[in-house]
Q: What sequence folds into this?
């Protein structure tokens, strides 16, 4: 199974079962460290047989909606709960992808998630890795899952 | 295990022996939930017995100064060489942490470094888990070494 499909399955699983939102995948593309505008990013490192980074990039509005649905709360502004839940989302996604890449569970390890947000920032591609991005569409908004792997 | 002490030792080691810049610190900031406002960050994950994210945060001009000192050149832009050099600084710092943790029988594996830059962004840590932030002063200005961690 290709990496694209692994990302799509992992993301749909979490959105349907944990966040209770439908997420429709778009066409995967190679990321080039595009600027993220008014966004929130949750990210986590993978180390071991596969080394790299898993990130979820959401426009701030989509981050509010996703974390609101996840936490079952009305959320109106970017607060610690939102940042925390987006980090946790990256953690769960990485856990699902790890399960697919590493069925024995022993050869890939995850770091802890970090969340960043801002008006404009770029996450650079790690030298020597490929960056696979899969866009997803929500009813009202979108987000991108990025997997950088050596 | 004294994470703040290990971070200070590892950072001083890297700056003294690899970058040849004088750094000083007055110790870590209160361990808590600081949100750091930054223009350039290099970060790397550690996993294993302890899971962590180690980052260096600074202004773009400090990143250029550090990379310039390390590569014995001058930069007037944050180009790929600066990003690579700062990623390498994060990598060396994580290597120093790995060996100190191993002395405490805590075995970890390094991931690979990532850099982030922007006009302004904040980085925050998960509520669960611990965080140590140590500000360091160079003659040119200040940078922060930030480690978020939780034990397996």
A:
């Amino acid at each position: 199974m290709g990496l694209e499909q692994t990302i799509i399955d992992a993301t749909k699983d979490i959105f349907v079962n944990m966040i209770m939102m439908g997420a429709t995948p778009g066409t995967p593309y190679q990321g080039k460290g595009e600027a993220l505008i008014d966004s929130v990013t949750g990210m986590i490192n993978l180390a071991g047989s596969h080394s790299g980074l898993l990130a979820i990039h959401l426009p701030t509005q989509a981050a509010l909606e996703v974390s609101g649905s996840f936490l079952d709360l009305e959320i109106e502004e970017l607060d610690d709960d939102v940042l925390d839940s987006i980090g946790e989302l990256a953690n769960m996604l990485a856990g699902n992808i790890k399960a697919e890449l590493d069925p024995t569970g022993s050869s890939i390890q995850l770091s802890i998630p970090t969340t960043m947000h801002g008006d404009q920032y770029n996450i650079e591609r790690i030298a020597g890795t490929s960056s696979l991005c899969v866009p997803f569409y929500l009813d009202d908004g979108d987000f991108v899952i990025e997997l950088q792997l050596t | 295990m004294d994470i703040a002490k290990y971070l200070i030792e590892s950072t001083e080691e890297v700056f003294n022996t690899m970058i040849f810049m004088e750094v000083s610190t007055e110790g870590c900031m209160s361990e808590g939930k600081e949100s750091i406002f930054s223009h350039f960050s290099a970060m790397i994950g550690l996993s294993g017995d302890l899971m962590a994210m180690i980052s260096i945060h600074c202004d773009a001009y400090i990143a250029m100064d550090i990379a310039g000192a390390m590569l014995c050149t001058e930069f007037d832009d944050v180009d790929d060489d600066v990003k690579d050099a700062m990623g390498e600084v994060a990598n060396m710092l994580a290597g120093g942490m790995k060996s100190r943790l191993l002395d405490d029988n805590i075995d970890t594996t390094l991931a690979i470094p990532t850099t982030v830059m922007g006009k302004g962004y904040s980085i925050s840590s998960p509520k669960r888990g611990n965080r140590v932030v140590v500000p360091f002063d160079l003659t040119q200005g200040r940078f922060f070494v930030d480690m978020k961690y939780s034990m397996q």
